[in-house]
Amino acid sequence: MRPHARNPKLAAYQTVSVHGGVASEDPHKLVLMLMDGALDRLALARGFAERGEVARKAQVLHSCITIITELRGSLNMEDGGPLAQNLSELYAYMMRQLTRAITDGSTTGVQEVRSLLSDIRGAWAAIGPQVAALRAVGNLN
């Protein structure tokens, strides 16, 4: 049993606290947090696969698919043009690879997704100073 499961009031407070903290973050940092969470889960999945823990591997890969779904859903398809479309297709590919890794037990797709997501994360982190500068002058929400 999880510690907070014994006290539903504490669990509710912790949930509100976590969501309140996320709401105050800027969107650029939130995307980095999602990417970091997905990358952490991919590393966990690899470890679980190496130890033969199939169910735990599937669980963290499912969580990773959920995160990538959120990343895909956060794309601004209207203003993002071809870049947003390409990212959307790449995220969809990643989700398919991870689904395949869950069903067939391979780790090849997991490693490929980790590499792709690391590259995207690196590019996203690199534009952080430009995003902050635009936000500071009021040209970005």
Could you explain the architecture of this structure?
This protein has a single domain, classed as Up-down Bundle (Four Helix Bundle (Hemerythrin (Met), subunit A)). It has 141 residues and is mostly helical. The radius of gyration is 17 Å and the shape is elongated. It has helices at residues 8-23, 27-50, 54-73, 77-104, 108-126, 128-136.
Q: Please identify, by name, the CATH architecture.
A: Up-down Bundle
| CATH uppermost class | Mainly Alpha
Q: Are there runs of 5+ residues with pLDDT below 50, and where? A: 1-23
Q: Strand percentage, roughly?
A: under 5%
Give me the count of strands. Answer: 0
User: In the residues, how many domains can be counted?
Assistant: 1
Mean pLDDT: 83
User: Alpha-carbon distance between the termini?
Assistant: 42 Å
Write the CATH homologous superfamily.
Flagellar protein FliS
Helix content range = over 70%
Order of helices and strands: HHHHHH
Shape: elongated
Instruction: Evaluate the radius of gyration.
Output: 17 Å
Class derived from helix and strand content: mainly alpha
What is CATH's topology name?
Four Helix Bundle (Hemerythrin (Met), subunit A)
The major pleated sheet works out as:
none
The number of helical elements comes to 6
